[in-house]
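ligand=S-adenosylmethionine
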Amino acid sequence: MIDTQSNVSNLLAGASFKTLFKEQLMKKPKFVKKYMLYLYTNGYSDPGGQGSIRWFLKMPTRMWRIVSVLRGIWFDRRFDRKHNVSTTGAIFLKDLEIDSSNVELGELYDPFPSGPLKRLLSMLPQVDLSETTFVDFGSGKGRVLLIASDHPFKQILGVEFSPELHEQAENNIRSFRSRQQKCETIESLCQDATEFAIPDGPCVFFIFAAFRGEAFIEVLKNIKESYHESPRPMHLLYVTDPLTHPIPDDDIQSVPLFRNIRSGRFAFDLSQRYPLGYSIFEAEKTTSGH
Ligand SMILES: C[S@@+](CC[C@H](N)C(=O)[O-])C[C@H]1O[C@@H](n2cnc3c(N)ncnc32)[C@H](O)[C@@H]1O
């Protein structure tokens, strides 16, 4: 049961609704969290939306978001049914057993919606996909890997540090059915993204707000080192909810390698649960060298 009385007094005392929502959510059984967590990732409370009067004034926005979440769940489940996989539902990293010093810098599992991903992949600059490796850093249950396989990439790799999510991704790769599939070399690797060896040849990296701070910088440094050893076409597709997790431009600039070639917000899409923004970066030779 939600402790309504203490929650109301906490709200009046200035605690954000989102913090309280998260606290209550942490206590729920896994199967309840699976979908309710979507409300949390959906920014159920706007940043700064504190105090009871503002909270009530924002009720219509919240209602719209709940509708978006329900619609998103319907689309997520439809994707799973259609392709014979299981990718739906969000999971806090605290509910998973992960052996990595970067857990605190990692974001929860939250699958990326299919509509915006298809649009993003269609925006890829002209590169020879048959020579290109697609990498999803923080690949969870592998939804992005499966959707990317509609494109004729040389290979598709997912890097996920949770053994439980990685195992589900492997099951999904095995059971996936799609008439559009053009790449069958798909692999989920169970490892920390900072330890992933960057593949030879051209690469497209995808990151859906998977980790932040030092972990993200470490990954960028690894990519940069690999690029300097052998300069080749490399693109980074960074997607995020710009309201809660802005694109980490400062981190990207702190490791000079990627130049932003396109940014924007995805137009409304039925499979999308909350606003999503994207940036496409291209690796370029920098004068600063290593
Ligand atoms: C927001 S989810 C994205 C899932 C997937 N890319 C998708 O879009 O469907 C972020 C994922 O990154 C993983 N993750 C976070 N930090 C990581 C790290 N340092 N190494 C590998 N995976 C990480 C989490 O376990 C989670 O599954």
